């Protein structure tokens, strides 16, 4: 099983949006092959998902399966969360840095969501023949191991400024900032999902 962890600040707006969308879509593609969770560097422990963020998640048409808004509860990021993650998808470079500070061994396995989407697309363009296909748990695990290996190789040549990798924090701000969050985050999530769907369909 591949364990993904999304990380923002309060764990009520950005990281649960990414967590629940990825969790549901990946569960549709490869049932039982992924475990997706989220946490916040200053997590508002026990709080539900922000209503305006949840409404925008619902607008994607996601069909809740194992990952539901109603069962979501915010958590503060801890050592165990980081230790148990195969890949951390942070919502800003600052969040990624916080994860690496907690565990330097995550240097090669912690990315911003937008950075990871860019890297994975490049990996498939440059080394797609070396990436295993299939939707079984063992095939998925082998694929993501290969993705991280190649992403690490290409990372330095595909770096971007924070403005291109960070996702804006909409907490307690106007609706337009929530829309901006979606505009920055959703294309990256959809790119990751679409690439995984295509890979899973290959025998």
UniProtKB/TrEMBL annotation:
UniProt cross-references to Gene3D superfamilies, sorted A to Z: 3.40.50.2300
PANTHER family registered for this protein in UniProt: LOW MOLECULAR WEIGHT PHOSPHOTYROSINE PROTEIN PHOSPHATASE (PTHR11717:SF7), LOW MOLECULAR WEIGHT PROTEIN TYROSINE PHOSPHATASE (PTHR11717)
EC main group: hydrolase
Domain Phosphotyrosine protein phosphatase I: 2-195
Name of the protein in question: protein-tyrosine-phosphatase
Record lineage: Bacteria, Bacillati, Actinomycetota, Actinomycetes, Micrococcales
InterPro entries found in the cross-reference section: LMW_PTPase (IPR050438), Ptyr_pPase (IPR023485), Ptyr_pPase_sf (IPR036196)
SUPFAM superfamilies (UniProt xref): Phosphotyrosine protein phosphatases I
EC number: 3.1.3.48
Organism field: Zhihengliuella salsuginis
